[in-house]
Amino acid sequence: MLANAIIQIGLFTLLVTAISVPLGHYMARVFANEKTFLDPLLKPVERLIYRLGGVHPENEQTWVEYAVSMLLFSAAGMLLLYGLERLQGWLPLNPQAFGAVAPDLAFNTAASFTTNTNWQAYGGETTMSYLTQMAGLAFHNFVSAAAGIAIAIAVVRGFVRRNSKTIGNFWFDLTRATLWILLPVCVVMALALVWQGVPDNFAPYVRAKTVEGAVQTIAQGPVASQEAIKELGTNGGGFFNANSAHPYENPTPFSNLIELLAIFAIGAGLTHTFGKMVGDSKQGWALYGAMAILFLMGVAVCTWSEQSGNPMLARAGANEVASAAQSGGNMEGKEVRFGIVDSALWATVTTDTSCGAANSMHDSYTPLGGFIPLLDMQVGEIIFGGVGSGLYGMLVMAILAVFIAGLMVGRTPEYLGKKIEGREMKLAMLFILIFPLVILIPAGLAVVLPAGLAGVTNPGPHGFAQVLYAFTSASANNGSAFAGLNANTNFYNATLAFVMLAGRFLMKIPVLALAGSLAAKRSVPESAGTFPTNGAIFVILLIGVILIVAALTFFPADALGPIVEQLAMRHGHLY
Amino acid sequence: MRIWAAIRMTIVLTVLTGIAYPLAIAAAAHALFPRQAGGSLVTRGGTVVGSALIGQNFSDRRYFRGRPSAAGDKGYDAANSGGSNLGPTNKSLITAVAARVREVRERNPGVAGVPVDLVTASGSGLDPEISIAAADLQIPRVAKARGLDEDTVRKLVRANTEGRFLGLFGEPGVNVLMLNLALDRLRAGDRPAGS
Lengths: 575, 195
Hints:
The structure holds 2 protein chains of 2 kinds.
Chain A: H1 2-31, H2 39-53, H3 63-87, H4 103-114, H5 124-127, H6 130-160, H7 170-196, E1 206-209, E2 215-218, H8 223-232, H9 253-277, H10 281-308, H11 311-315, E3 318-319, H12 339-352, H13 367-378, H14 389-409, E4 414-415, E5 418-419, H15 422-446, H16 450-453, H17 461-475, H18 490-520, H19 536-570
Antiparallel strand pairs in A: 1-2, 4-5
Chain B: H1 2-32, H2 34-37, E1 41-44, E2 47-51, H3 91-107, E3 114-115, E4 129-130, H4 132-146, H5 150-159, E5 161-162, E6 173-175, H6 176-190
Antiparallel strand pairs in B: 1-2, 4-6, 5-6
Helix pairs in contact in B: 4-5
């Protein structure tokens, strides 16, 4: 069993590493507007998009102009999605004749997909028409991911450029991320998924007469096209309610592997894009190393806890011991084809990034096993992270790390040749503080207000964990859930939508301001006193800073949820 | 001016990624893999009995049973997928599992430990598979109910077992629907005029 876990997780990590290097270098070429093998096919499309969109990609933008373009584009897309949801009853591609989505749910979903969160207070197959799924939701899967990548590239430009007022052009970055990175991978991946069994059609739901004579209605839809971008763009919004646990979204261990690799690919690749852009690949590897170590720590604990199982299930007569004939462990909420290892691996990967897709139900994890996804989000989705947002989040933590290192030796900190001064630290701290602020305050309110408590479905500390998980997931733009929480209420739809918007845009603005501030600086030459940020000591410092910030912020809340529940479970206490 | 650009770019990219891309994938999927694109449906005697990928309810003693399902009110509702979302220290979870263990033992006398997957709800509520251990446990009952020898049934179980991908990734499982259909075919082969 241990061998099985080590082989699967080890091979996965090797594959991610192998993919990330060429992908990272390719992305660096894409944003430097250098030649790529896809140019003959995509250049004409790119020109057409600029012409139809009425934008001028060669116009360099200041950070304010860049941010305004991004915000206006997000607002337009959010309104479009809201409109589609409300009007889907009158629009085509709606064979199940779903009516309008209720206003609060439509608003929540529009905020959710615009912010790359993909929190789902609805079940896909019972709520959304095929048109809403593809033109509304899948569109946002593409562009929210592309916008994330765009901002990460703009931030890296801030480090690279000297005495510059501008950080690039949003429309250029957005379009190239969509055309050169997301679309080509999705085409290949979607077809591979269909081959494995993921359906892709516009047929009405199938009425089957089962072997024992009952009627089984089987939901259909254009699943594969959405599934591919859902993972690659770290979106995570499932076509079906059960997300990637659903056999139509994720039918085989091979489809599972493809989807897992897609979730990590761009986030991991961007570290090397960063290394290439700053002209020192070891800088990229340092970030990659910190991310990989944090990932492996999380997945080890989660797998161990789920494999150890729930002692109360064993007492009830279930055999949880792993053997050649069964995976054993805590199988509540998990699929046989994934067993423990692929489920725990997925839970870690999907929360390290801002994906939030699920191939098992986190709500039914052992307390410690479910604590890992929560903790992954609480460190800020920077372990490979959301596409783009993972890199810029990690860069903010790197700035904090060099600042702390600077304080220790009494020297103005530098990172990549840029002096980190008061303004940069203020913006970095703003970024770091907004995140817990919009988690802890609303979560605290939700557990004292009747409207919040009404949604809780598990008793005891697990009920608190459901609420804490929901607001953490929303603020981190993850979208996974302790899904028992009944979140389709006015209270949760409104509060979570606000938290998602704050977690995305209130954090992107300081990070773009940081990019603008860095770009305007001159570069200081490296000296004997410069703290090297491309070696092992920096990696260790960075990991330490990340864990300390998360622990100081969230430990009191976590202690009331998963930590106390783990102790209760070990002592055989039920609620 | 900026607002106008944002709106125009939204429309252009919606047409590309939200309409052209999914339509192209659907067309290619239909041309290359028509069976999978259509949902891997399984027919018997001209009627659709289900999908090879989607589990369904079995209660008859002559059929292998799948896992408990939290999808819909009666389980295995393939238009309303989902798990139980019961937490690990929730009394309801533990009492439900204990009741399922008792039921499995009653239906399959002489069973010692009950494989955990057979008494816990899957994440999707539509898990088409059970573990090899959960299938092996049911072989004596099904063989007896059908008047078959256990080896014949065991062979069918093995034939409907999907191994790990490349022998490495995922876990082996037995597809319950395909196994039960194979059992019925066996019977039909024995008595061509029957059932």
